[in-house]
Write a structure and sequence with these properties.
Blueprint: H1 2-16, H2 32-44, H3 61-70, H4 81-109, H5 121-130, H6 137-143, H7 146-150, H8 161-170, H9 173-178
């Protein structure tokens, strides 16, 4: 089988020679894409003319334009903006007054009165912790009554030095410094 194939190839090349008859022009494949896309675009263009100019169009164009310019102009309808504003101004004013009153009525009904009884103890403690740097002696004197201080059991007791020294030694220095 291989010998038959070799013989047929040899026979064909002997008859036609080395040149098979199929050749491409030089640089054919360099611009084949652009030629192909150009051909596609050309096929999309219509073959028949779609637009045509009437006979003697340009010879009579000047006369027609001048006739339209020199002909009396029609009176343009003018809409006065002032009359529309005057007509809608009272409506806009009434709407804005109603809106103002409505907003004030609904917001005033929702305002809660804050009293000392409505504040929880934790809120007071949190406020004191947050504002410790801004509290001075006058603020404390306003809140604490003198009778409360006199009745305090710690105000009459004295602490001796040994108890104080034992307490300070028992506390960690890092926690004392952080406080």
């Amino acid at each position: 089988m291989d010998t038959e194939l070799k013989n047929s190839i040899n026979y064909i090349t002997k008859k036609i020679g080395e040149n098979a008859g199929f050749t491409t022009p030089t640089n054919y494949f360099d611009d084949v894409e652009t030629r192909f896309t150009n051909k596609l675009v050309e096929d999309e263009f219509p073959k028949k003319e779609k637009f045509s100019v009437p006979n003697n169009y340009f010879s009579s164009l000047e006369d027609r334009v001048l006739d339209k310019i020199s002909s009396p102009k029609k009176e343009a309808k003018i809409i006065a903006l002032r009359s529309k504003i005057i007509r809608f101004a009272p409506i806009a004013a009434a709407a804005s007054i109603l809106l103002f009153i409505g907003i004030n009525i609904f917001t005033f009904n929702k305002i809660e009165t804050v009293s000392f009884e409505s504040i929880s103890d934790s809120d007071i403690e949190n406020w004191l912790v947050d504002n410790t740097n801004s509290i001075n002696n006058d603020d404390l004197a306003f809140v604490v009554e003198i009778t409360d201080i006199e009745n305090n059991e710690f105000s009459t007791k004295s602490i001796n030095d040994t108890d104080l020294e034992e307490y300070l030694n028992s506390i960690e220095t890092t926690s004392l410094l952080n406080e």
